[in-house]
Amino acid sequence: MRGDVGRADLLQLVLKGQRADLATAGLFGLEPEEGDSSSRKFQSGPLDAEEKKSGLEDEKGNASEPELDSDYPRYAFPLVTQTTMRKHNHRPEDQIEPLEDADLSVPWGRFEQPLPPLCPWPRLSLWLRQALGHRAPGRRLDMRRLMRQVGRGEVLHDLPKLERDVWHPLVVLLWDRSAEMVSFQRDLKDLTVHLRRISGLGSVKVEELRGNEDVIAVSHRIPEGIPVLAVSAMGAFTGSAKTRAAWSRLGEHLQKRGNSLTRLSPAPRERWEADLCRLWPSTVWDRRPRPPRRGGLSSLPPCEDRGHVVEDLLVLLSPAPRIEPPLLRKARLCLGDRADAGTEWEAWHHADCWGSLDSFGIRAGEPYAKRLQELSSLKDGQREMACTVAREIAVHLMNCGLAIRLEAALRMIAAGLMDWDEFDEALQHAIPGMLKRMRRDALRPNGEAGKRGGLADWFPGFVDRLSPEMRDHPELKDFVARGAALSAYFREEDYTVPEGMSDDLYAAETHAAGGREPEPVDYELILRGGELLLRHLSRERVQGAVPLAFFRAAKPSLFLRPGDRAEFRAERLQIPDRPGSNIPLIRLDRPCALRLESDFQTLSLSLLERPPWAERLVMDRHGVRAEFTIGGVRFVMRWIPPGRWCGEEEGPLENAQVTEGFWLGETQVTQAQWRAVIKASTPRPQAADHDPSHFQGPDELPVESVDWETSRNFCKAVGEVLLEESDRSGGFEFRLPSEVEWEHACRAGTGTDFYTGENLDTDSDTFSEALDSIAWYAGNAGIDLEVENPDKASDLLKMDWYRQKQLGIHAVKQKLPNPWGLYDMLGNVWEWTGTLDNASGTTKENAGRVVRGGSWSFPAGNCRAAIRGGHHPGLRFRYLGLRLAAGQPPEAVRVERKKAGRAEAEGRRPARTRRRRKGGR
Question: With contact defined as beta carbons under 8 Å apart, do 752 and 759 qualify?
């Protein structure tokens, strides 16, 4: 007697990874059908060759999880069959893209601004050759010495040569990386590169010293009798007695060992120590004074007070929120001979400045406001100098984040160095983009995106650094007040409104933040091991998971309602704000209908039974597919879940919604499938339709050279043949997909040019590496040709950009499928759709029909998900084919239309009507 179990229980064992062989199936009263080729219905062993070929391998060729079969009409898969999108009234500001982390952060890997050298390299190279080399005979004759020897009657054994300075075979460079030299590290790096270039890479040994301990320990690593160059201030800036003592001890030790010592110091001469100068003959590493011809400087000038020069430098740099060595050097050089390298060091380490290892800036407060006020009151020549430095600041910050650039521009406007008319266009878009980002972060104060961006933490300090006049500026007061309110709302803290800020705007934004609707987030509904999961949309696949549909939600909660189980109550679920996380919804212990509701969308999961025309229903890593055979030829249809997508501005489609799921052919109709259906059809069609294809070769080549009416009749014939071979009635209607259905299936949840998630390269519309792996197009259609009669590239549009001399179509399923398991949705052959091209023709009968997908003879720009063309329904050409569709009534497709463009003339190839969006694509 059969127990209270069924085939669904057996399927759950397979979902959980349990082995379910024939013996296990017998416990449930199930037996395999005799003569069935798939006798391993309840096994989870290795896949056979046919299963591997059907798309169950990953991109590396490894077999994925086993298929789950259902050859019985009783079993039903829980699939998304219907969807409804709720309407939302967005404000105009919602159309503005929020700034992302990359826009706000400092791009550390960016191109660095060139750093002007402290001393011109030709001048410094001459001194380095003299200090680190020795005198040796050259190639030129010493004529004076030669004449004297001849006049004295001496016997000439060798001709006297002029001596010249040559590099020592090995020199040691002591690189001071202590805190005292932090502002000159870029100069030290450039010096090392320059020295190795002119003296030889292997002749320079670099020793890095990070403290006094390293200074003492390095003496044992320096060979005897070779030149030593120390690049260090040796405590001249900090006045450290310990640092001076360490360098003195090192100098005494090296002199005893016969090493020649030289020092290159960025510190002014008046800061040097006399005893160190005797041990280490020194040269000022700056433009003035010039390096001596031999040795180092011996006399020390009187000490000068240059505090006013440092103050002038900080006034010029006050508009810059972030000051790096190139900007500091350029501003210092604008002051002329009054400033030197010591002025740079004093500015970097000023009490009113903050400093780091690679940059510094002026702290907010009264000293900063005073310097900015002083900058605005400069006159004549000083004013011109300030404008020059302001231009350098703008160029220097061009590669920094938008937040830093915006603050610098506002400071320049406050100082009168820039007008609002000169405001950068990118910065004009940054202001509303910042507000949009802060509004998004304020809705999820605990989210990772808001914490990682740091915009809310930066904004209060930015407002405090603005003057009261800037906070109340007509062009800025709305941004300042609303941004401060959003920052306080995000940080959940009280905020004291500073002087000049609008109290009304601050209060209005604070009130609106509490009732604002969050931005929607896209998720993917997947089934793994009998458990229904919701995960943040990602290109990464979950191992062992079956994709069901895409889902959109804004508020961090949703409802899960049973569709036909009255004893279950609706459950409210929380959605965490963690990208890539899996959110468990419910475990499907037994098949049931469900409904998933959010504030943006409703999904209905129904029990989808095997269609009457299908012989086999299979669930794999791409979803569910149905299979049937006609004349021994296999047909595969993929289940396409409903959903919504936004099309590009290339045709009459603007926003489209497929409200019900449908079936679509896994591949384009092949020549073998065409012949099988035509042979089994009654009455027999015309002889010309039996084998219409121009290209001859393998049976898996897609059928082409078929017109629209013949393609539609073929779809009807498939249903009629299946109906004749079956003892059932109804449910055998096959058709061409509509244009909306085709693009929805092609994109598979993506919004890019290709369903790989990549866009067409903006440099070239002819070839694309992203398209090579998924489509046959003019860039690769000549590779591995199997057709017997390929076309010559010279005959195709008379163009010379084809890479191969011969081109043609290829067998289906040779490229990677899209996420829903559909092959060759782009390229190979254009596919007829059932949609009229209303922009062409005067009547419905002679109006063109839309074709989609591109073909083997078209460039990459004409093989995108958004490309469309129109053809006369009677046209036959060797790039026109078709794909089967079934299920869902036509009224399940809802389209929002806009004014269509001008269609092509009748019988012409589909023209590319790509219109690029601003900023990409």
Answer: yes
**In one letter, which amino acid is 767?**
F
**Listed residue (659, 647, 719, 640) closest to 890, CA to CA:** 659
414, 467 Cβ separation under 8 angstroms = yes
**DSSP sequence for 237-282:** TT--HHHHHHHHHHHHHHHHTT--EEEEE-S-GGG--HHHHHHS-E
- Residue 285, classed as helix, strand or coil, is coil
118 Cα distance to chain centroid:
39
What is the reported pLDDT for 730?
63
What does the alpha-carbon distance between residue 321 and residue 401 come to, in Å, rounded to a whole number?
Answer: 11
The residue ranking higher by pLDDT, 844 or 732, is 732
| pLDDT, tens only, 780-836 | 888 888 899 888 765 554 444 556 678 889 999 999 999 899 999 999 999 999 888
**H helix or E strand, kind and range, residue 368:** helix 366-376
Residue 571, amino acid? E
What are the phi and psi torsion angles at 698 (to 5°)?
-60, 155
pLDDT on residue 175: 93
**764 alpha-carbon distance from chain centroid:** 19
Q: Is the pLDDT of residue 718 over 50?
A: yes
DSSP line for 592-648: --EEEE-SSEEEEEEEEEPPTT-SEEEEETTEEEEEEEETTEEEEEEEE--EEEE--
Q: Three-state secondary structure along 168-209? A: CCCEEEEEECCHHHHHHHHHHHHHHHHHHHHHCHHHEEEEEE
> Over the stretch 404-426, which tens digit does the pLDDT of each residue have?
888 888 888 888 888 877 777 77
Question: Does the structure show a pLDDT above 60 at 650?
Answer: no
Decide: 563 and 595 in contact? Cβ < 8 Å: yes
Provide the mean pLDDT of the chain. 77
Phi, psi angle pair for 888, to nearest 5°? 35, 125
Helices (H) and strands (E) in the chain — how many of each?
26, 34
Give all strands (DSSP E) within 623-782, no chain letters: 623-630, 633-640, 643-646, 653-658, 662-665, 734-735
